[in-house]
Amino acid sequence: MMEIIFLGCGGGMPTPERSLASMMINYEGRKILIDCGEGTQVSMKMVGRGFKTIDIICITHIHGDHIIGLPGLLSTIGNSGKVDPLIIIGPKGIAEAVKSLMYIVPYLPYELRVIENYSGSIDFGDKYSIKELGVLFKPMNIQISSIELEHSSPCFGYSFYIKRNPKFNIEKAIENNVPKNIWNKLQIGEEIIIDNKLYTKEMVLGTEREGLKISYITDTRPILDINNFVYNSDLFVCEGTYGKEEDIDKAIRNKHMTFKEAASIAANSNVKKLILTHFSPALKNPEDYIDNAKAVFNESYLAKDRLIETLKFN
């Protein structure tokens, strides 16, 4: 089971009802944070989720409403007892931005590493380390991919594919003459050599099983590449800065999206569910406009601060 926790759903500036942009993936006791706007720590405290097990922070772009909460959060993570490395992933400029913000928090008891402007995907599953970083990680069984978006500054969207391990296949293990005393080790991915023979997980596991895909797109116009990127997502989280379709000119000018535009992406990408977030501070009651999205894609819903969405494997 996986939790998707909306820590902040506001864009631009906070309101009494909404903190600024942040979302957390909580899976098997480990956490990935996407963006860190003002109020992120408060929401984490309110939902009762700890800070120590945050392993990765993905930043979409370097605008204040998406990163201004970083210094305080990094300090709190340090005070939580974390000593394992923490990775920050982001677009061009994120390394300099983090360096500048760290003047506020000059000391951390853990190692902070930054991956800047990485194109493609990073697999945190079978490998125990990321070679280019030299950082050791406990396998998280997750693949993180990024896409360049169309905004007023370099901006990334992210997808997170949670792999599902194949089931143990006793018949296969017996057929391959695998000693029983190493079945458990092979099942969790270890490779073992006995009498010069290599035993691997493929010798005891069945066929691959479908995983879970979560996609996160914010601060962009609806460029065509997004459709392929979010295709087949179990959950598609997308900005809905403007609820009224009459605000389309504002959306174009400010490089954001309306509810209807976000729903159109969902409708054309075979996603199972759309949750809209990143609402303009002028959008007091997003629920008044949800029908604009549902008319295009019926499985459209609204995020709110501290909403917890649960996903399960089929």
UniProtKB/TrEMBL annotation:
Active site residues according to the UniProt entry: D65
Sorted UniProt keywords: Endonuclease, Hydrolase, Metal-binding, Nuclease, tRNA processing, Zinc
Cofactor annotation comment: Binds 2 Zn(2+) ions.
GO MF annotation: an example: zinc ion binding
Organism: Clostridium cylindrosporum DSM 605
Name assigned to this protein: Ribonuclease Z
Matching NCBIfam families: PRK00055.1-3, RNase_Z
Entries under Gene3D superfamilies matching the protein: Ribonuclease Z/Hydroxyacylglutathione hydrolase-like (3.60.15.10)
Subunit-level organization: Homodimer.
Residues noted as binding Zn(2+) 1 in the record, renumbered to the chain: H61, H63, H151, D219
Catalyzed reactions per annotation: Endonucleolytic cleavage of RNA, removing extra 3' nucleotides from tRNA precursor, generating 3' termini of tRNAs. A 3'-hydroxy group is left at the tRNA terminus and a 5'-phosphoryl group is left at the trailer molecule
Its biological purpose: Zinc phosphodiesterase, which displays some tRNA 3'-processing endonuclease activity. Probably involved in tRNA maturation, by removing a 3'-trailer from precursor tRNA.
InterPro entries noted in UniProt: RibonucZ/Hydroxyglut_hydro, RNase_Z/BN
Residues annotated for Zn(2+) 2 binding in this entry: D65, H66, D219, H278
EC number: 3.1.26.11
Required cofactor(s): Zn(2+)
Family, per entry: Belongs to the RNase Z family.
Pfam families tied to this protein: Anti-Pycsar_Apyc1
